[in-house]
Design a protein that fits this description.
Elements lengths: L2 H31 L3 H27 L8 H4 L10 H8 L6 H13 L4 H31 L1 H7 L2
Helix pairs in contact: 1-2, 2-6, 4-6, 5-6, 6-7
């Protein structure tokens, strides 16, 4: 991946993170309204983190020399599916790259910035965050399988 391709990919990721932050915000609000406070808190935290990652990406792109007119892709919002069902929310959360492929993609991006320690460090932080989120999501899907969906929802109150 060339440096220009890596910069373009970073802009695409910002758009994904903006969209994902909106998805998580909707899931948080809906779960809070329905009394699933533990789930709502986690989705709200994820919404905030995704929004912050998008902003970090835009700031880094500007530091790398991008002009505001170069950031059209970065400020777009990739649309994410929504659901009222918490189990489907967990599944949708992994639908658009929030799985091991996201970590692989970020690792490749990190390699493209091998000569840029600041960007690499930022990407490594994002990789750690993705890994933690993937683990959390898997744990919750496994919990549903072990205790049943109704018991899981009771636990999320």
């Amino acid at each position: 991946m060339t440096k220009n391709e890596a910069i373009a990919k970073l802009a695409e990721l910002a758009a994904v993170w903006y969209g994902n932050s909106k998805q998580h915000a909707v899931f948080a609000a809906y779960n809070k309204f329905n009394g699933y406070n533990k789930l709502a808190e986690k989705f709200a935290e994820e919404a905030s983190e995704e929004f912050a990652e998008a902003n970090e990406a835009i700031n880094r792109l500007i530091e790398l020399g991008c002009q505001p007119t170069d950031l059209a892709t970065a400020i777009k919002t990739v649309e994410f599916d929504l659901s009222a069902d918490p189990k489907e929310q967990l599944e949708l959360d992994l639908k658009y790259g929030t799985d091991d492929s996201a970590i692989q993609e970020l690792s490749l991006l990190s390699q493209a910035f091998a000569d840029d320690y600041i960007t690499q460090e930022l990407i490594q932080k994002w990789i750690k965050g993705e890994k933690e989120h993937i683990d959390w999501n898997r744990q919750h899907r496994q919990l549903i399988e072990k205790v049943g969906y109704d018991n899981y929802l009771l636990e999320m109150l």
